[in-house]
Amino acid sequence: MEAHTGNGASRHSREVSKAAQSVGESSSALTQEFNNFVTDIEDLIKSSASLSGEELSKAKDKIKQRIDSAKEAFGETTENVTARARKAVAATHQYVSEEPWKAVGVGAAVGFLLGVAVARRPQ
């Protein structure tokens, strides 16, 4: 059996932390993109309320372009988040495989803390 050092554990911890942070950043970027999209569409709808004919057609085209752009950004961000989440899962799996007793200890500690928090919660 291979001897494990604290360096391996901290390396895995850094990898998981980095992947989780990346997922959070991507989620924030996705939220920001969605908020921008909604704002842009609202502005376009307000500005096109009094349009007719060719101007209305141009406004519709602009809305369609913005929707297509948002779909593309959403797809790219979703793929990015998925890839980063998979990296975090892989790093966690590797760590748990290499350090099972530490993982059991962490799980027990988290379970205990959650139990204490639930027990103290006012009914």
Note down, in words, how this protein is organized.
The structure is a single chain. The chain has 123 residues and is mainly α. The protein has one domain (6-120). 89% of the residues lie in helices and 0% in strands. The protein contains 3 helices and no strands. The protein has helices at residues 6-48, 53-98, 100-120. Helix 1 (6-48) packs antiparallel against helix 2 (53-98) and helix 2 (53-98) crosses helix 3. The radius of gyration is 24 Å and the shape is elongated. The model is unreliable at 1-5 (pLDDT under 50).
Please describe the topology of this protein:
Layout: H1 6-48, H2 53-98, H3 100-120
Helix pairs in contact: 1-2, 2-3
Return the string of H and E elements.
Answer: HHH
Percentage of residues in DSSP E strands: under 5%
Overall structural class, as computed from helix and strand content, comes to mainly alpha
Distance between the termini: 50 Å
The radius of gyration over CA amounts to 24 Å
* Oligomeric state, counting identical vs distinct chains: single chain
Specify the overall morphology: elongated
Based on DSSP secondary structure assignment, what is the total number of beta strands? Answer: 0
Question: Approximately how much helix is present in the residues?
Answer: over 70%
Which spans have pLDDT < 50 for at least 5 consecutive residues? Answer: 1-5
Largest sheet: none
Mean residue pLDDT: 78
Number of domains: 1
Tally the helices.
Answer: 3
Looking at this protein, list some descriptive labels.
single chain, 123 residues, 0% strand, elongated, disordered N terminus
